[in-house]
Amino acid sequence: MKALAEQIGDIDGINIYGRVVGVRGLMVEIAGPIHAMSVGARIVIDTGGNRFIPCEVIGFTGNNAVVMPFAGLDGVRRGCRAVIGNAGNQVRPSAKWLGRVVNAMGEPIDGKGPLEQGASPVPYRNMPPPAHSRKRVGQPLAVFGEQLVGLEARALRRVDRVLDRVLTLVQRLGDPRERVLPQDPQRDPEQEQGPDHQPDIRGDQERAAGCDGHM
So what CATH class is 2-88? Predict the structure, then answer.
């Protein structure tokens, strides 16, 4: 009964509205009952054609309220009606909201249908609970931490393998025995041997003697 009474109390019996008197960049000036437009109040601008732009009061200039829209200002003109909402600055979450995706206005954006409203309203700008009264983080974060450590370890092992391959390649390139230089077919090996090179006459004679023996 208490929750039902709260929901009935949120129903607007009388529509209180103002009028758009100016637009400055992304801010809109609303003229109307200042006593009903406090900072943080929600206002809906009716542009006509079944298009409504939700806004929030962020300040005042003179006798007008300055609001910030949550959507584009296409279609907004001087004289548009700005309806002031009583229950627009609160949301009614429930357990059915778990796993759903909502926007900053508490509206579903995951394409899974409307959200089931909870019993008690919660303001958008609600104070966070004290740190000493919050529940301790349980197993899910610990599991995530272990997974993160495992990913880091696997990444480090891969880096080590890559570094080992690079070092091995550098060592091979630095060893002259591992180098394979391409040979130019136009070069004469005798010219590259230098003037002090002596031909292997003894080896040539032995190879010639061996050939004569076989004959």
Answer: mainly beta
